[in-house]
Amino acid sequence: MIKQESIQNLKSIIDITDVIGNYVQLKKQGSNFSGLCPFHSEKTPSFIVSPAKQIYHCFGCGASGDAIKFIMEIEKLSYPEAIEKLAGMFNFKLEYTSKNSFLNIDLLDKVNSFYESKLFIKKEALEYLKNRGLFESTIEKFALGYAPSSNEQFKFFKDAHLNFEDLKKLGVLNETGEYPRLIERITFPIFSQNGKIIAFGGRTISNHPAKYINFTNTSIFNKSKTFYGLNFAREHILRSKEIIIVEGYMDVIMLHQAGIENAVATLGTALTGEHLPILKKLNPKVTVAYDSDNAGINAALKASKLLYKEYFEGGVVLFNEGEDPADAVKNGENLDNIFKEKIPFSNFIINFTLKKYNLKNPIEKKDALNEIKSYIATLPDILKEDFANKAAQYLQTSPALLKTRVSMQNQNINLNKKTDIAEAGIIKTLYENPQIMNSVVEYLSPEMFKTHSNELSAVYAENFEDSRLLEIVLRDDIKTLDLASLKNQIRKILIPYYQNKILQIRLDPKINGDKKIHLLKDMNLKLQKIKKGEFVEGISSI
């Protein structure tokens, strides 16, 4: 976690005009600056930046805040990510409360510089990349390198005085520290969204059976949550409102080289629910462009089911058999035409699900129908009817046969799965602003929540993969609260909680007189402080 003193020191050197000037053309207007608002479409400037107050405000859409809030909104970053982005802009070194990713970045940079220096020495590695169609400028942009023999790497690590424990924790060495994870492989540094190296992937040039390998998960890297190339693609995704998801490093690199710079890749895994928070923040139309082999089509089918269910617009692009996006670039194919011919997610799901069956066989047709019905059962109600109608056309059957009946057991589950908007709003705010959890957890415990105690426990534990937590975070109707609203919501929960506690103590015959008086006095004192707002004064920095 970033030290609060470090954040304050960073704030003291930030000039909001410099920050916003990187994104908005500003003109001097008295003591302030004005420009066209980047958060809504307008022809007359209503966006004002105040250097004196270090804030911005749009009189058109109401957007306002400081430099940190601006970076969070314009770049779609979390609070810590925005802090780190600003620190990079002003060449400011942040301090953390514990050893973490930032403190180790220099080490990973040194390792990558070593790998880069070896690439142009290892002719076979360089020739492989050039034969795949990469330009030297592209190799430099993506900082590709080559990991030599184990002995060469250990000699460099020792000569450079790199900490071997850190090398293990960051995945450069295996868990026991006996050997480097990448040996005799072309290296692909994997960057965070802010452009910091957090891991590596490698491609063999020695006919190793594992063609590609990635680092295992570390404290700063989770391959199921990371998109390769997002640091290069983010700006283009935000501008175009579209993202292309491919399977591998080379696909991303070659597409970028060809001018398609909104491409990213998953890292050795199919698209998962853990990727969704990133996509939700970017809010683009999604094109899935995997290989056309069986593995690629199955991965595209899985991704389509996930994305369609989450209301993402977009579709799937299929390349020629045996060809991947990198090959298409090298072969000089018309990429614009290829990406225009994407198959909408719903059509792709139905078509490639039914292809597994012989629909002329009544038994197989019934199996196909049941598989489609099973997927329909997972969809939100608003999508079910449209999907069922489409599937019925493919199956040449009545849509009524695809309507799912929910069992009483499932009905009870759904009925019990109600949402408390007040509790959910607090949880989503803590998820988006983890820096305030330490001050909130002191007086807001999970037992105080009637509906979402498990989700509050999950966010306190930073278990951000918890499916129940993600259901709240990904809902657009649950809003992240501002500071005043957060404090107010907490008070609304704490007041009835302590009122109920007071009533329970009064009515409990097992509590003797003196103890009861002491407990009631303590609870009433807390209740008075809550009503005055004293319990929530410590929350800041949303």
Could you explain how this protein is built, in words?
There is one protein chain. 49% of the residues lie in helices and 10% in strands. The protein folds into five domains: 4-89, Alpha-Beta Complex (DNA Primase, Chain A), CATH 3.90.580.10; 101-214, DNA primase, catalytic core, N-terminal domain (DNA primase DNAg catalytic core, N-terminal domain), CATH 3.90.980; 230-350, 3-Layer(aba) Sandwich (Dna Topoisomerase Vi A Subunit, Chain: A, domain 2); 356-405; 421-536, Orthogonal Bundle (DNAb Helicase, Chain A), CATH 1.10.860. It contains 25 helices and 14 strands. The strands form three sheets. The chain has a five-stranded antiparallel β-sheet with strand order 1-2-3-4-5. Helix 3 (67-75) packs across helix 4 and helix 17 runs antiparallel to helix 18. The chain is globular and about 85 Å long. It is of the alpha+beta class and 542 residues long. Mean pLDDT is 86; it is low at 99-103 and 405-416. The longest helix is centred in the last third of the chain and has 25 residues, at 483-507.
